[in-house]
Amino acid sequence: MHILSADQFTKKQLEELFALTSSIQQKFAQDKNEILQWHKGRVLITLFYEPSTRTRLSFASAAAHMGMSVISTENAREFSSAAKGETIEDTVRVLEQYAPDAVVIRHHETGEVARAAAATNVPIINAGDGKGEHPTQSLLDTYTIWQHFGKLTNLRIILGGDLLHGRTARSLAKLLACFEGNHIVFNTIPELQMADDIKQYLDDRGLTYEEESDMKKAFAQADVVYWTRLQKERLPEGVHIDQTYAIDTKAMGYMPDTAILMHPLPRVDEIATEVDNDPRAKYFTQAGNGMFVRMALLDTILTRLKQ
Ligand code: NCD
User: Fold this and answer.
1) What is the mean pLDDT of the chain?
2) pTM above the 0.70 mark?
């Protein structure tokens, strides 16, 4: 079972995963040692061709807390045989020989992780592929929303920032379409608008959305404001875009008291640090949830394989 796209999850699977995540989170607080026995002797490989802090280290921590060993390369673009011209298919075929139980891959090119998955039976987990998808980020994002509101239905979610080059908002939009009554507001500048394939995906599933460039109007009845950084590394050569959509204390004033502000991190300057102490700012809680969601995901993959 590979994890390649947010498309592949059903509402039922998400609800099961969130229930498991929540129980792991509670168990972890009570008795970490029990969890440490769960996957002793199993091996996780993480193969990252692009920079990462949270995704790689939360996967590694998730695996370590469940007793797994983690073997890791963090700059595979430079330091793996990819630099010598090896295809990703050959790389995973070789990794397969080392008998890992799962391999987590981040790649700078869209679709490369799926190519790796097609070449092996070892479960491959997409940790972000170019401007394609970041399915495990969207799992922790929706888990955070579910944990806060106790539901994932009938919410008004504002997706802002770099919607064109960012993969997290794309995967999140797909997962939100698994639940009824949600409404998405895309709040960005025309050059960074959400791509048509995602809009089509939402149309096909009957999830409503609108584009609203005015931050004040977009935030007015929000339940969730999900903000993202300008993906400078993905801009075509010669293209320069000014960062014009920062959230500061004034912008927080446009949001209802009951709303939450999320961000996949890293944040650059699109959320001012003065916002961090606002109780509605949930991005650090969100990042912390990442480890627990990834524990639940790994446990689900590894347990299913065992049966
Ligand atoms: C995101 C990513 O890699 O797409 N980071 C993350 O995994 N939390 C967001 C980003 O880099 O902007």
Assistant:
1) 95
2) yes
